[in-house]
Specification:
By secondary structure, this protein is an alpha/beta fold. It has ten helices and 21 strands. Helix 1 runs parallel beside helix 10 and helix 8 runs parallel beside helix 9. The protein is globular and about 65 Å long. The structure holds S-adenosyl-L-homocysteine (SAH). The site of S-adenosyl-L-homocysteine has 18 residues, from helix 6, strand 16 and helix 8.
Length: 461
Amino acid sequence: MAYEKNDVVTVLIEDMGNEGEGIGKIDGYTIFIKDGVMGDVIEAKIMKVKKNYAYGKLLRIIEKSPYRVEPRCTVHRQCGGCQIQALSYEMQLKFKENKVKNHLLRIGKFSYDEIEKSKEEMIGMDEPYYYRNKAQFPVGRDKHGKIITGFFAGRTHTIIPNKNCCLGIKENEQILEIIIKHMERYQIVPYDEYTKKGLVRHILIRYGFSTGELMVCLILNGRKEQFTCLTKMIEDLCTIKGMASICVNRNEENTNVILGKEIQVLWGKGYITDKIHGMTFRISPLSFYQVNPLQTEKLYEKVLEYGDLKGNENVWDLYCGIGTISLFLSKKAGKVYGVEVIPQAIKDAKKNAIINDVHNAEFFVGKAEEFLPEYNKKYGEKADIIVVDPPRKGCQKELLETIVHMKPDRLVYVSCDSSTLARDLRFLCDRGFELKRWVCVDMFGMTVHVETVVLIQRKDT
Ligand code: SAH
């Protein structure tokens, strides 16, 4: 059946796609409708027609899905931060686990039985709101010229004003108000992506959930001296309970990358600390740190469980960030090696080893896919257990080849993108490993993202 742009249709949302979009079918013809929730019967306007599918816009809900809930946020439809806030949390978990299963099945080519047999019960959050310890707010102007901050709308760089996102901490609002008011008062210009002019690009806020320490980092397209009466603003920010670090980051590049390479501390320490499972971690503005500390603890416990350490193993923690997993595992391992590409993060990792009295961990700056093959060639170091926790694009082939060559007994794969996870697992399972156990941990309630921990084992061990 062919549709034309602007046709209005009534359709049942039968499923939801990987980006959380509703999927309806009319006579086998697929329509993708953003904000449609599985189980809704809706009226939609056709916006774009392709040969076998179309995109529609939700006009009206005719019959509400039993899985539909009232979102807490008033801008949840416009804002790109959340995708599935209108879906009940219980169904969000099912949706995410299904997504991982589908990737393992379709991309990983694992059999349905293999996937089901090795699956463990998904670890959801007790409180799926207010969990984020970090937020990066872009600064700009609305169409009346007023300075605004909030989040980008999905797939665009239009700022949806929002100072009190309900995924983040309540202190965000107060901090943002101080900065925006100061900018208005002293006519400090927000950065404009089109003209590449203006000073203030982003405001980064970080919070240590277990220490109450706050960090504010201003990302500037220029020098801190261009920010009028900076000392006054610092004074105002210092009145907020927990303020521990105020810094600036200079980013004059014309890119989507938020942070530049250079950090200058304006007040307090150049980092904040947080605790996971009794271990203290120091976190610098440029270092990666998991955004949901409560779930991180559960995630790391799984890594430890899957690692099944006896006390004398050589463990490699690739993509180690500030060394959290390495140090978490170090107490039960013989020796732990961490590799990470960001020098500042490795500096943190080394400090973190000292703070936590860990003496059997060594950290290296480098790209995992370059460092490990070279190190292995030079020293032929044995690996009993390898942990990888790569960014969304997954592991490079050179790294996977080296892992196969190093013949670890077990590999624990921590992944924030199940499609690249499935691809990499297939590569390894075609070369001597087998899928043993896997579990999803929800670190990102209200969004379509999901973390997965997988244990694969060498068959000949
Ligand atoms: N395991 C850590 C960090 C995981 S995030 C934790 O749980 O906190 C992924 C990390 O990989 C980031 O710190 C990022 O800087 C780093 N990274 C990205 N590409 C890399 C590469 N090619 N080699 C090594 N590290 C890389």
